[in-house]
Amino acid sequence: MAAPTRPSQTLVAELDERSRALFRQIVETYLETGEPVGSRFLAQRSHLALSPATIRNTMSDLEQMGLLLAPHTSAGRLPTQQGLRLFVDGLLEIGDLTQPEQADIERRLAGSGQDFEDVLTQATRLLSGLSRCAGLVLAPKSDQALKHIEFVPMGPGKALVVIVPESGAVENRIIEVPLGLPPSALVEAGNFLNARLRGHTLDEAREDILAEVTAQRAELDALAAKVVAAGLATWSGASTGHAGERESQLIVRGQAHLLEDVTAEADLERIRLLFEDLESKNDVVRLLDLAKDGEGVHIFIGAETNLFSLSGSSLIAAPYLNARGKVVGVLGIIGPTRLNYARVIPMVDYTAKVVGRLLR
Question: What CATH number does domain 8-91 carry, 3.60.15.10, 3.30.70.240, 1.10.10.10, 3.40.50.1980?
């Protein structure tokens, strides 16, 4: 029976130097070849001068800890999902990208121009090409400064919001408002917003105005304050979905790379399931939203998320910042759990930083 899942730090502390070295060798060999790793192979490749019997005993101990598994009775060992997590968290040595690699990323992204969507689209192509996986980006629909906003009553509990950004493209959205709200409150809310949001994005306006409402400095009555709070809370960065929920724009490039080097029927089935995962874009968006919390690279391996429980895939993602230093989106790659983590992690991290710098 598999060992219960425990934090990686605890398991790393339980490994002695020999076990740690052998486990690292097994995982690195598996990530390179995709094949089970046997004791005889390790005896030939390892620098620890251990016999195959000693290696088998150590591998058995690692299996009891839930870090390795044997796909067949007489086969070698593969890292489990928990083993991959321990390797990534505690044993993986991540180097920096070389200066030429950094320069190439900056050149290819800058060459796409300064248009917001062009930069993000190029970033997905870049990550896909470099990692040989599918590159993806989660982006807000727009980050434009606003020119005018107006609330129009639409019947009990509903109002139409007419939004005019400085680009001139008009956008209409429907929001819920308190029942019994008089039309005059909608007019007051529009006047209040127009006096403050011109030249600001929705996110900026939302922060500034909600701060005023919270501090009770807003020159609004209670009903108008509810309109402002409810309305702006609905505008947090992208288009409105079928049920009135906000949806973010998801850009995916390079799915064809996931079909390369497929040699077994099991691999084809995993790829089929992964494509189904990618088609469920709402779940992918929710997963990427998790990567917005905190700085740095976030790694999701296999069944750690419901999205990848069947296809056994990994997502490596990093947030990027706008000119105000706020997280506005996430980019990364999705592929099999057998990834070159040491190469992909710094690649995703650096690309996110370059995208953030270009968007400023």
Answer: 1.10.10.10
Residue that wins the pLDDT comparison between 288 and 103: 103
Calpha distance 204→198 (Å, rounded): 11
Q: How many residues appear in the chain?
A: 360
Per-domain residue ranges of the chain: 8-91, 99-140+248-359, 146-246
User: How many Cβ atoms from other residues are within 10 Å of residue 174's Cβ?
Assistant: 13
Q: Take residue 194 and report the two structure tokens written for it.
A: 């127009």
Highest mean pLDDT among 51-55, 142-146, 163-167, 268-272: 51-55
- Reference 84, options 38, 19, 31, 36; nearest CA is 31
CATH architecture of 99-140+248-359: 2-Layer Sandwich (3.30)
| Packed helices 341-359 and 116-131: angle between N→C axes, nearest 10 degrees | 170
pTM: 0.67
pLDDT tens across 116-130, in order? Answer: 778 888 899 999 999
Contact 11, 65 (CB under 8 A): yes
Q: Give the pLDDT confidence score for residue 1 in this predicted structure.
A: 37
> What's at 282, amino acid-wise?
N
